[in-house]
Design a protein that fits this description.
mainly alpha; two-stranded parallel sheet; 7 helices; 2 strands; about 5% strand; globular
């Protein structure tokens, strides 16, 4: 029997509900029952979907999908590749605080204030870079799969392994992740 909705779609529905859309409207809009929603919430509640694309696709194309209305943090930290003026102005209008880590050039080095600002931004971004370093340690840059679906599965398993190791380290330190 073929399922009507993929797991990614179901998690997307749950995120819409978390963002404040009424459940009845959500069910009517996408064509499923409230009982299905309750079942999905018990099965997939709290999950997030990771996104994998081909190497030729620039990360900026996925940027809009990463903005989560249910996220309480309103600061976005990115590097200079995302520094377009239009999205930056629009994000500020929507209430986000945009921290862009700028790079100096040969003829135009960064000022002391810009270097301090970059250091402040880098302190938060380092946690993401540690995750990438762990993925590199788990198998290098090369994926030995054919097709985007298999690559997504392999990367998903590596990310899950990273989260399990991080959870174990937090528990060993006496912290309770909440």
């Amino acid at each position: 029997m073929k399922k009507r909705f993929s797991e990614e779609q179901i998690i997307g529905f749950l995120r819409e509900a978390e963002a404040g859309m009424p459940i009845k409207d959500l069910c009517h809009r996408h064509g499923f029952s409230e009982a299905s929603y309750s079942l999905w919430r018990s099965k997939f509640g709290g999950m997030r979907v990771h996104d994998v694309s081909g190497a030729i696709v620039h990360d900026r194309r996925h940027f809009e999908r990463l903005l989560d209305a249910g996220n309480t943090a309103r600061t976005i930290r990115v590097d200079g590749a995302y520094a377009d003026r239009d999205p930056k102005a629009r994000l500020k209008e929507e209430g986000y605080r945009v921290d862009i880590q700028h790079n100096g050039t040969r003829g135009n080095p960064l000022s002391r204030a810009q270097q301090r600002r970059n250091q402040r931004i880098a302190k938060d971004r380092v946690f993401v870079e540690h995750a990438f370093a762990r993925l590199m340690h788990q198998g290098g840059k090369c994926l030995r799969t054919l097709g985007l679906a298999r690559a997504k599965g392999v990367i998903g398993l590596k990310v899950a392994g990273h989260h399990l190791l991080r959870l174990a380290r937090l528990q060993q330190a006496g912290m309770r992740p909440g």
